[in-house]
Amino acid sequence: MSYLVHSKELQKIVVQKRTSRQIMFDVIFALMMRELKTRFGNNRLGYFWAIAEPIAQVMIMGIVFSIIGRNSVSNIPIALFLFTGMLPFKLFGNLLTQLSAAVDANKGLLSYRQVTAIDPVITRIIIELVTFLLVYVLIFSVMAWLGFNAWPDNVLGLLSASTLLIIFTVGLGLILCTAISYWKDASKFTAMITRPLFFISGIFFCAVMIPPQYWHLLDWNPIFHAIELSRDSFFKAYESPVGSWFYLSFCALVSFSSGLALFHLSRQRFINL
Amino acid sequence: MIYFDKLSKYFLTKKGPHYVFKNVNLCLPTDKNIAVLGPNGVGKSTLIRLMGGADNPSKGQIHSPLNISWPLGLQGGLQGSMTARENVRFVARIHGYKNTYPIENKVEDFAEIGKFFDEPVKSYSSGMRSRITFGLTMAFDFDFDILLIDELSAVGDANFKQKSEALLEEKYAKTKLIMVNHSISELKQHCQAGLVIKHQNLFYFDKLTDAIKEYQSTYAK
């Protein structure tokens, strides 16, 4: 019988005792292979859409802007201006959607003792960040090739603003993930949060275009701050009157620590979902 | 030996916590195959899940120096949106195998479900699922000291049953079983010792016949 022949082959493979860290690496690697296959494998255009979607949105808005006769904002070419707002917002939206469903989508696999609830979360963070980085670098390389000045003036500032935005989003994602374990309909909040934020996060406008007496309507929004600070760092020509490092850091810290705490306290629940 | 140390497990219900196990202290010998006995809803599957690490105790702990399998049963363990091959790969990877092909081939040969091996598991019949679950165990069992089996052999046609039982038989020398099954005759065929669940506690019997007697005197009406 053929399966007995295989069994002899198998016994040659000796599995060493692994440390906890190695087990976690193995689990995250296994989850990553699985996630990549479901996200990009079934639809072979998956990676194409990750790049094409923000480009298409920027193109449409760029056309609208040029129809109303604007080619630049604060001396920044309109395409660069839109990309520097659109890409961080895409990161926020995608990461939040992916994280809030991370545990739910993998709950069948939590019955293996090696897999804990945080593993699918870490896996999805890695996938989203790598995708974001690739898309960001690709789009801006093409922009540079087209003759735009696409190298950020303050790389460190751009990285800091992005990192703070990521920390904030991960915290919010963990909170939503936990909320879904108590109440399944909470997944509807993800769309309810991201949709309206698209219009008030300064993707197609910036603070200097708004009269100062109305800033208070927008400046509670940490994503608005993240985008303002990204642009502030990216373009020397633009100085954000609103973007506050302190406020964004504060939001990131509060969101991340409460997200981690809630997730840790409810880790038992995820297994019994 | 599997040690149960002040183990409690409860589930939250609308009328407060429902205790399945309350303060269980036990050293479970693992030199024989053990049948778990109890009526529906008393906690047999929960016990298997707790031992297999698929669920966590509410209080206390279970520990053992032995290598215990994950719970092999019809529920859980396989992700419906993935194909059988992807499930097998996943399990091989989390157990630290870098090269998953030998295991994939072995499960594929054992399961004999043809082209469905590359279809999502959610499209399978329960018989096909049990073939995959069983095939997975067979590919890994030389690693495990104890196999946890939850009503697995209940499904499957005569041909497959014969094949899987022959294979189980073959592994007895190295691997012990802890098994849940509603068919007493099947338990008698595989197991020598018994574990009865009653009064939210566990009672171990060295001889299966004693355990069955205890079970019947407790629960028979």
TrEMBL record, chain B:
UniProt keyword list: ATP-binding, Nucleotide-binding, Transport
GO MF term (any one): ATP binding
Signal peptide (residue range): none
InterPro entries in the cross-refs: AAA+_ATPase, ABC_transporter-like_ATP-bd, ABC_transporter-like_CS, ABC_transpr_TagH-like, Bact_Polysacc_Export_ATP-bd, P-loop_NTPase
Domain ABC transporter: 2-221
Top-level taxon of origin: Bacteria
Similarity comment: family membership: Belongs to the ABC transporter superfamily.
Protein name per Swiss-Prot or TrEMBL: ABC transporter ATP-binding protein
Source lineage: Bacteria, Pseudomonadati, Pseudomonadota, Gammaproteobacteria, Alteromonadales
